[in-house]
Amino acid sequence: MSTKDCGHHEHERRHLLRHVLAGIIAFIVLILLIIFLIWIILRPSKPHFVVQDATIYTFNLSSTTEPSLSFNTLTLTMQITLSAHNPNDRIGIYYHNLNLYASYRSQQISLATAIPDAYQGHKDFTVWSPFLYGNAVPVSPFVLGSLQQDQSAGAALVNVKVNGRVKWKVGTWISGRYHIYVNCPVYIRFAGDRDNAIGVVAPAVKFQLLQSCSVDV
């Protein structure tokens, strides 16, 4: 084969390669354009979460001092009413593997409670009423001091947090799973004499809150 023939074939290969690369780039641009148009049309929005109320059955801190040993434990029993709203007109939301727990001063103070999986249609609401339990949860000395300060102020902030997965549904198409993180502030008012036991709330105190939560997806 002559040098001229080799150069001709090399030119054809390069020409074909350029066409293939141009086709791949055009395909990627087309897919991105379709995704952008779908986003513009659908305008997807994160779900909105609200804590409607909270019933506190137990919330107290116990301090134990023994020879060469001192520790604090927090006991919590509470029930919350948590609602989720899908604000989208054309997108449904699947909730999967949702777990809810209580946190005080960035320290988890209850076991995780599983929330049933659910599907939300367009503009729908879903309401859950889970219990949260924390029995003699060890807490740091910092929590003891903070709770004493909150008791003097007459109220404490407990964060109710939700971790799980969501999927989006548009027509018959269902997306992959995305992580969802929800943080709901719950303000608890202390009952009775603030100078008595540390962090005691009278049994079955119900607070109407309607407190909005922050949502990250």
TrEMBL record:
Extent of the signal sequence: none
Major localization class: membrane
Any one of the GO BP annotations: defense response to other organism
Localization terms from the record: Membrane
Ranges annotated as spanning the membrane: 20-42
GO cellular component: plasma membrane; plasmodesma
Keywords: Membrane, Transmembrane, Transmembrane helix
Record membrane topology: Single-pass membrane protein
Protein name: NDR1/HIN1-like protein 1
Lineage: Eukaryota, Viridiplantae, Streptophyta, Embryophyta, Tracheophyta
Gene: LOC113859731
